[in-house]
Write a structure and sequence with these properties.
Layout: H1 7-47, H2 52-67, H3 70-89, H4 99-124, H5 128-136, H6 141-171, H7 183-194, H8 197-229
Helix pairs in contact: 1-2, 1-4, 1-7, 2-4, 3-4, 4-6, 5-6, 6-8, 7-8
Length: about 230
């Protein structure tokens, strides 16, 4: 089966695959994680707000994002952002924001819906007695959230956040549709150039599996460790 398998094409492409492709994939994953965690936390607070309009708006956003295919949202933001840029700046024609900016905004907006659900569960896992005690000490709502609730919620949700980050890492391969040279895109370029589709796509699959499996194993062990501490 592997008699005609050309390992040399993989070896020759390693610098390009990892220094360019994987570096871009990890950068996009990291920036998207930070942005979607921040916005997801705000959406979770809106969902739990006593103001019904805020709660309904947040719930509607989460349901909308979770109901649409990611690749569709990638294309939607890619074509929509130039028009938003034109509207904001008052320019005479759509502003070109670039494929990377479109992809980053898409992943932050999409993943924020999933992180919002994770953070909502984390916030609700904190005993209400702690909130009542904080208020009894004279702390405001935001002081209670920032100093008491959110640190514990983040700690409790670390395994789930890590699991969602693995999914985010895998989803970034969809930027391939915008011709962005992420790890999969770099492997595809080499495959097309050298006519070695089987070798390059097999190697890309092995790399994604190793990274995702290692991260998943760490997440499970972390979850068990946190459960023991509790």
């Amino acid at each position: 089966m592997f008699a005609n398998f050309d390992f040399d094409v993989i070896v020759r492409s390693l610098p390009y695959l990892f220094l360019d492709g994987m570096t871009f994939t990890l950068m996009l994953t990291g920036l998207s994680l930070v942005g979607s965690l921040f916005i997801g936390t705000l959406i979770a607070l809106m969902q739990l707000s006593s103001y019904r309009a805020l709660s309904l708006l947040a719930v509607g956003y989460v349901n909308l994002m979770r109901a649409l295919p990611l690749v569709l949202i990638i294309f939607w933001f890619y074509f929509l952002l130039p028009w938003i840029g034109q509207w904001v700046t008052g320019a005479s024609r759509p502003i070109q924001v670039g494929a990377f900016t479109s992809a980053l905004v898409t992943f932050i907006a999409f993943e924020a819906a999933y992180f919002a659900e994770i953070m909502r569960a984390g916030i609700q896992s904190i005993p209400k007695g702690q909130i009542a005690a904080s208020q009894a000490l004279g702390m405001t709502y935001w002081q209670t959230m920032v100093d008491v609730v959110l640190p514990q919620a983040f700690r409790n949700m670390i395994p789930l956040i890590l699991t969602q980050t693995i999914i985010l890492f895998q989803d970034t391969s969809l930027v391939y549709v915008l011709s962005i040279p992420d790890f999969l895109g770099a492997a595809s370029k080499v495959a097309q150039r050298d006519g070695r589709l089987v070798e390059m796509y097999t190697f890309a699959a092995v790399v994604y599996f190793i990274i995702s499996f290692a991260a998943s194993t760490y997440a499970r062990r972390l979850q068990m460790r946190i459960a023991v501490v509790r």
